[in-house]
Amino acid sequence: MKQKLKVILLDFIYFLLFAIILILIKIKLGKILINLKSYGAGLNTFTNQNVQEVQNLLSQLNSIAINAFIFLFIIIPLISFILYVLFQGLTFKKEKFSFKRFILISLFPFIALILTLFTLNVYSLILFIITGYIVFISYFYDLKKINLAYKKFYKLFPMYLLYLFLPFLIIGFFYLAYTRIPISFDFIYIILFGIFFSILFSLYKIYLIKKLN
């Protein structure tokens, strides 16, 4: 029972923190866009005589672009991966568990997911699904049994799709609740749905650990 509560709590905190990250990204991007618009409007007011002012403004625009790049492509992915490894790794922790192994095998689908989100490329999405499926097998089976990925594909792939779908649904509920706060009190029901599916995901993971190990 203690193990179940531990998994449920860790998963809930993870999904909540991830939703908060998405909210912070939205706020940060909003500020960046406002700055870019204000500087863009400033460029239109300059004449040929204001060369130095234009250069200063372009330098500031370049600084904003670099900061946005670092924030979106380095800081956010790094924080997201650390959160995933820390919270999700602890839910899998058992006798022969290795954080180093968990980090290494989780890195490949994570990179593929980042590429998919930033490029919106179908090939990156396919790569994410394939690497994610192999890693899913690695979470629950020893690497020596990796051949089960195709031997029991008919059984394991649908399990993987559900395992993959639920986190996106949960984070989506928590993020949607934030957007509804200024509009309506229905955000409370949305949060409850998020909590319900978070618990469901945790119980499903516990079921998979017992059934597939």
Give the amount of beta strand, in percent. under 5%
Mind summarizing the main beta sheet?
none
Number of domains: 1
Number of β-strand runs: 0
Helix content, binned percent: over 70%
Poorly predicted tracts of residues = none
Report, as a whole number of angstroms, the end-to-end distance: 19 Å
Structural class: mainly alpha
Rounded Rg: 22 Å
Tally of individual helices = 7
Average pLDDT: 84
What shape does the CA trace take? Answer: globular
> What's the order of the H and E elements?
HHHHHHH
Give your account of this protein's structure.
- It is a single chain.
- 86% of the residues lie in helices and 0% in strands.
- The protein has helices at 2-45, 51-92, 99-119, 122-140, 148-151, 153-180, 187-212.
- It has 213 residues and is mainly alpha-helical.
Throw out a few tags for this protein.
213 residues; 7 helices; mainly alpha
Question: How would you sum up this structure in a few lines?
Answer:
This protein has 7 helices and no strands.
SSE blueprint:
Layout: H1 2-45, H2 51-92, H3 99-119, H4 122-140, H5 148-151, H6 153-180, H7 187-212
Helix pairs in contact: 1-2, 1-6, 1-7, 2-3, 3-4, 4-6, 6-7
